[in-house]
Amino acid sequence: MAITLTCPSCGNQITQVTRSSQILVCPACNTTSFLQDGKLEDIGKSAVLTDTPSIFQIGRTFRHKDWRFSPVGRVRYDYGDGWWDEWFVRSDNGKESWVSVDEGEIAIETLVQDKLNVPAYESLKIGSVLNINRIRMTVIEMNTATMIGAQGELPFRAVPGEKYNYIDLLGPKRASFTIEYQTGGIECYRGVWIDPFEISEV
Ligand SMILES: [Zn+2]
Predict the structure, then answer these.
(1) 1, pLDDT greater than 70
(2) Which CATH class is domain 3-45?
(3) Which pTM does this prediction carry?
(4) Which residue ranges make up each domain of the chain?
(5) Cα 151 to middle of ligand 1, angstroms
(6) β-strands 105-111, 96-102: how paired?
(7) What distance in angstroms lies between residue 44's CA and the mean position of ligand 1's atoms?
(8) Which of 87, 136, 141, 164 has its CA 20 to 30 A from that of 77?
């Protein structure tokens, strides 16, 4: 059931659509707010993300093969030489995933719930091979991400300007794996790289 909240910055009414949301970005003034005990707390202005063309739109429904999903929020990270968007999406059955879009590259990933033992960021380099659940995966990218903007709703506290290190790995059959070295701990996401042409709007 949708809940309506008031933007602490401009008083605009914001509708929360996902129960797990912790961050809501006001569509009127782009203030990023943290949701706690049913109230919104202003944690800073977000960059405007809606001025660039995008394959996805919040509130619409898209399809990849048999999987239908609707974006409810996105967060944009700068990695020095550019930026990428992480779309927080919900399936028809309520399952939550992330669709990352970096220029033409798209990966669909979900948060790994069990704790995995992964090496420290500093001990890895491009080309390092890790065994993740007995699957050999190769480090293809490692960098520092800076949160520069958000839109819609997000399930974690994303603060504009916050930085973290991450590595992207590639495995057999275009398997993707991402390790984020966040201040609060390490988070892993597992998924697959897909062909952007396999995505269509429903
Ligand atoms: Zn507002």
Answers:
(1) no
(2) mainly beta
(3) 0.88
(4) 3-45, 62-197
(5) 12
(6) antiparallel
(7) 11
(8) 136
